[in-house]
Amino acid sequence: MAKKAKGNRVQVILECTEHKESGMPGTSRYITTKNRKNTTQRLELKKYNPILKRMTVHKEIK
Predict the structure, then answer these.
(1) pLDDT category, 1, cuts 50, 70, 90?
(2) CA 52 to CA 13: how far, in whole Å?
């Protein structure tokens, strides 16, 4: 029996890049999905950081 192929959609974690530099405790992370075939590079989105209380750049982490 053949194995089922993995789907093209995968879950990725986005982490705030500006939060590490601020020195404040905690971290801002979001979980989202991306299509492996259409988006081969790592995601970089502007999301709201509740700790810094503003929109910041969130990058995909491994």
Answers:
(1) low
(2) 19
Residue 34 lies in a domain: yes
Q: 4 Cβ partners below 8 Å, 6+ apart?
A: none
pLDDT tens per residue across span 7-28: 889 999 999 999 877 778 888 9
Percent of the chain with pLDDT over 90: 65
Exposed e or buried b per residue across 28-53, where buried means at least 16 C-beta atoms within 10 angstroms of its C-beta: beeeeebeeeeeeeebeeeeebeeee
Give me the number of domains the chain comprises.
1
Q: What range defines the domain where residue 27 resides?
A: 9-61
